[in-house]
Amino acid sequence: MADLREMNEAELRGRVQKLLAEAHPERTDSLTFRRKQYEHGLAWVHFPEGYGGLGLIPKQQLTVFDEISKHSKVVHHDPPAATIGIGMGAPTVLTYASEELKKRFLPKIFSGEEIWCQMFSEPGAGSDVAGLSTRAVRDGDEWVVNGQKVWTTVAHLSSWGMLIARTNPDVPKHDGLSYFVLDMKAPGVEVRPLYQITGEAEFNEVFFKDVRIPHSHMLGKEGQGWRVAITTLMNERVAIGGGGSKKKGGGAIAQLVKLWQSRKPGALSPAQEVLLRDRVTRSWMDNELLRITTQRARAGQKSGNPGPEGSVGKLAQAEINKKMWETALDVLGADGLAFEAGYALRQGDFNVSTPEALAKYQFLRSRANSIEGGTSEIMKNILGERVLGLPGDPRIDKNVPWKDVPRS
Amino acid sequence: MPADFVFTDEHQELRATVRAFLEKRSDERAVRATMTTERGFDAEVWKQLAEELGLVGLIIPEEHGGAGFGAVELLVAMEEMGRALLCAPFLGTAVFAANALLTCADGVTQKELLARIASGSLIASVAHAEPNGRWDLAGITLRAKGTGPNVTLDGEKTLVLDGHVADVLLVVARSDAGLELLRVNAGAAGLTRASIPALDLTRKLARVTFKNTPATRISSGDQTANFERVLALVCAALAAEQVGGAQKCLQLATEYAKTRLQFGRPIGSYQGIKHKCAEMLVSVEMAKSAAYNALFIAAAHEADFVEAAALAKAYCSEAYFHAAADNIQIHGGMGFTWEASPHLYFKRAKASELLFGDAAHHREALAKHVGL
To answer: What phi and psi, each to the nearest 5 degrees, are found at residue A169?
Structure first.
């Protein structure tokens, strides 16, 4: 990619003004406005001209946002279902797709007209994604796909899916993968909601039965799928990491504090009161220190001295969040036995109208925090090996053809 | 303005200077040699800390012969001292006594004592804790008898940092006015001082008894609120020292895990050890956040400093102890020996956890501040 430059601030603001003159968010719907934003190169300013960008350094995107919010009460943010395409799909397309596909995909990704989903994980390939089994077999100018993906967010709304499949089982696992853009409406693609511990379905399972993909929809070369996937995944880490509230005592901990302060008088014995208060205090401390650690990470990045404080957030937040909601249930005590919202299996929003309902929902939902986006065990391996420099575990699947590796 | 956690080039330079000095003058051999002496510190090192590095007068204003630095510089120095297990009356004299004088004492006393502290020629210790085992200010029962500028004391203070070698004791006592600060000179009549055989040999503690002992009033009016801030600064500084120690334990454990081979591979390649190290890394980073937050808030003179200090002392106490304990475990059999270094950190960790109130004590204080 060409070197990114920094545009004069006034000039960039001038360009935003021109966009606003053509389409003002207060008088234009999201789709139309975002199409215009793309045409002006203000969608991803760090993308090249002609692809929704201006070849600028990424942080100048903030200037665009700032200028728009200054002149408009309405801001057309990324449509929630489109964030995977905008954050992960677009950089992958930009880096690896053909000219034709870039022009075809990028404008509609940004406008939100076409939703994208990511199809990497499989029932048999969780932490070890590269061990996946979905097969793609070449047939003339097409590939024929069979297999199953899981934990696929917004698959039921998607037009396109980022798919990694195994194209060569006779080489070690990383070398036999290829990356495709799959038409989610193609014959043989079946999307089913995946109901979770809470009864809701935030994710889907996707099944492939003799699904045909044109060869032109392969990103990167055959066998390079893992490298392409890394581009996608690197952008995922950016999207998930760095949590915590901005304000002291804000965010989730405020909910626990509220529950604690409204506990039923007399329900707890004096000894229980002391023990529980200490757990609530510990949670308050954990959340406050997570917030400060994120702040420190930001300061470190800004000063060009990033330290380990930037790497611990994901692991810390997952464990802290689980513990906090466990404490919340104990604060609710007897009231924690009821689950008013019920477990009707459903897709879509959960009814979290009261702090109690929210606590009970989060108590269940937070179990995923230490699994999704890298389990805590994997995060500890990463911290141990990449930050502390400890040696890796000996790998028994290294240099072994994928077909000969034991699988559950 | 919220704390920005930016260490300037000057801060980095200070850190490098202190580290280089302590690597030479407070290496493990020096620590072991010094900790078994009765006095507990190396007079020559103390002199160098004062004269060459200007550290003893770090937080003492320039008008009193100090460097006039603030809480962030104190944080840097304490972190490095904790890392090196420095045996010196720094916490007791340069932090606790100097800050008590600056916050509570009259101008004449400040003028007389602060310059001598900064120059390294005077050890001053605050006598605060009593045998009742309490760290809160309400636990102070020693009475100042008399109404004029000169009073007498009868009773006992304990866990006085470097109290056995102090030239001046700054005694926290109660009178009808509330809490006040009194000065007792080392040679005063009826004053007895005895070293306490300590769990942590690297920090010396003494028991002090007064029998009709003459003392001078050096504060005016009730000092309760002032003492609270003094103790908060001591706790925040101690938290920074704990961070330095914890970080060093993580480093030692990791280095050992990389080089110790069992079953034909480094023990650090086993998840049982690797994950312990990763967990230590997380809690060390969180502890840094706690200590840095408290001292950056102190530097900015923000109102919630006392709360931030409680958070720091509560979190860093446990983080250091766990890091020191896991460091022993990761060192295996060696970790349990006198010859290897882990026990030095383990003892310092537990002692600094208990000193000035343990983690539960500070969590309780924090809960009150937050309204839990």
So the answer is: -80, -5
Length of chain B: 372
Residue B296 to residue A171: CA distance in whole angstroms: 55
Provide the pLDDT confidence category of residue A408 given band limits of 50, 70 and 90. confident
Cα separation, B138 vs B210, whole angstroms: 20
pLDDT at A175 over 60: yes
Residue reference for tokens 């001078």: B216
pLDDT at A2: 62
Q: What is the ipTM of this complex?
A: 0.95
> Average pLDDT for residues B350-364, to the nearest whole number?
98
Interchain CB contacts (distance < 8 Å): A and B: 130
Query: Distance between CA atoms of A112 and A38, rounded to whole angstroms?
Result: 11
- Which residues in B lie closer than 8 A to residue A392 (C-beta atoms)? 269
Cα–Cα distance measured from residue B303 to residue B258, given in angstroms and rounded to the nearest whole number:
45
Q: Which of A47, A34, A27, A24 is nearest to A111 (CA)?
A: A34
- CA torsion sign, B248 to B250 to B252 to B254? negative
DSSP assignment of A270-289 equals HHHHHHHHHHHHHHHHHHHH
Residue contact A391–B371, C-beta within 8 A? no
**What is the C-alpha to C-alpha distance for residues A15 and A274, in angstroms, rounded to an integer?**
60
> What tokens were used for A100?
């034709």
For the beta carbon of residue A371, count every other beta carbon within 10 angstroms.
15
Among this protein's residues, is A236 annotated catalytic? yes
A289 and B290 in contact by Cβ < 8 A? Answer: yes
Q: How far is CA B188 from the centre of its chain?
A: 26
- What is the Cα–Cα distance from B87 to B75, expressed in whole angstroms? 17
Tell me the β-bridge partners of B173: B180
Distance CA(B239)–CA(B288), nearest Å, equals 9
A 10 A CB-CB count for B133 gives 9
Q: Running DSSP on this structure, what letter comes out for residue B149?
A: S
Contact between A182 and A116 (Cβ < 8 Å): no
